[in-house]
Write a structure and sequence with these properties.
The chain contains nine helices and twelve strands. By secondary structure, the protein is an alpha+beta fold. The strands form three sheets. The protein has a five-stranded mixed beta sheet with strand order 3-2-1-4-5, with helices on both faces. Strand 1 and strand 2 form a beta hairpin. The radius of gyration is 20 Å and the shape is globular. InterPro entries: ACT-like_dom_sf, DUF2241, RNaseH-like_sf, RNaseH_domain, RNaseH_sf. GO terms for molecular function: nucleic acid binding; RNA-DNA hybrid ribonuclease activity. This is ACT domain-containing protein.
Length: 288
């Protein structure tokens, strides 16, 4: 069985954190099929620690339990004493609480291990949340499945620089959910900020990209609603013109786009009502 990812960041040292929030999720492609469990620990200084575990064959519920299990193990390793646990699986949350009966014997050993780990914390709160609020753990589980368990970062990750090849291998992925750009300050904003998928420090303040549901829940103002399209091809900074071609093609069809180039992939944020049309344009671009 693959072990969860381990982190060696010296700033995230055992015993440093007493309180944390744990988001867990899991998924299975085939149910049963290839699967993964994942957890994201939001620490008191707004640092996130992500762990994931690849499962060659498992059900969705087994993957969900695995996500919770490895999250608890990481929290224990970091010396967390008080833990708030959030997950979008009603089955897992309610079975752990004891309000739902266990019906699948395949889950018994996982439930037993989870309950044993819970006794090692001074205080634990479990809460079911909507899927939109669980996007970080969901993304980690899907990334683990995509990688087939090979979640290690390459020592050298030089991207593709030839425009023709980049365009030919372009595989746009429409990320579930709606997103907004927000800014703000104070305790409510900081809580929402910990759940952002991206943030920028600007002269005027900190801007974050949030799931729309989280912005609404926190009453944060926004002016537009976007869908996220991830370009699942790793482009190099030397690939001059790659994103310009994409932005130009979308602009010709009247689709504005915010482009964010991350470490591994480029991400496009397009108006929510134009997302399907944008996906069709990108597929046409890839087909030449």
């Amino acid at each position: 069985m693959n072990k969860p990812d381990r982190f060696t960041d010296p700033s995230i040292a055992p015993g440093k954190y007493g309180v944390a929030t744990l988001y867990f999720d899991g998924g299975s492609r085939g149910n049963p099929g290839i699967a993964a469990g994942a957890a994201v620990l939001v620490l008191t200084d707004r640092q996130n620690v992500t762990v994931s575990q690849y499962l060659p064959r498992a059900t969705n519920n087994e993957a969900e339990y695995t996500g919770l299990l490895i999250g608890l193990e990481k929290a224990r390793e970091l010396g967390v004493k008080k833990l708030k646990i959030h997950g979008d699986s009603q089955l897992v949350i309610n079975q752990v609480k004891g309000t739902w009966k266990l019906k699948s014997e395949n889950l018994r050993s996982l439930l037993t291990r989870v309950k044993k780990l819970l006794t090692e914390f001074e205080k634990v709160e479990l809460e079911w949340i909507e899927r939109a609020r669980n996007h970080l753990a969901d993304a980690a589980a899907n990334a683990c499945m995509d990688a087939g368990g090979k979640t290690e970062k390459p020592a050298v990750s030089k991207g593709e620089s030839k425009l023709a090849k980049l365009l030919k291998t372009l595989q746009p992925v429409l990320v579930p959910g709606e997103f907004v750009f927000c800014s703000g300050s104070g305790e409510i904003f900081e809580r929402a900020r910990s759940l952002s998928i991206g943030q920028f420090r600007e002269k005027e303040g900190i801007a974050v990209i949030l799931p729309r549901a989280e912005a609404d829940r926190s009453s944060l103002p926004y002016t537009a609603i976007f869908r996220q399209i991830t370009l699942s091809v790793h482009s190099d900074l030397e690939a001059v013109g790659f994103l310009a071609i994409i932005a130009s093609r979308l602009a010709k069809k009247g689709i504005a786009v915010n482009v964010i180039s991350a470490y591994y992939h480029d991400h496009l944020f397009v108006p929510a009502g134009k997302a399907i049309e944008a996906m069709e344009i990108l597929r046409e671009l890839a087909e030449g």
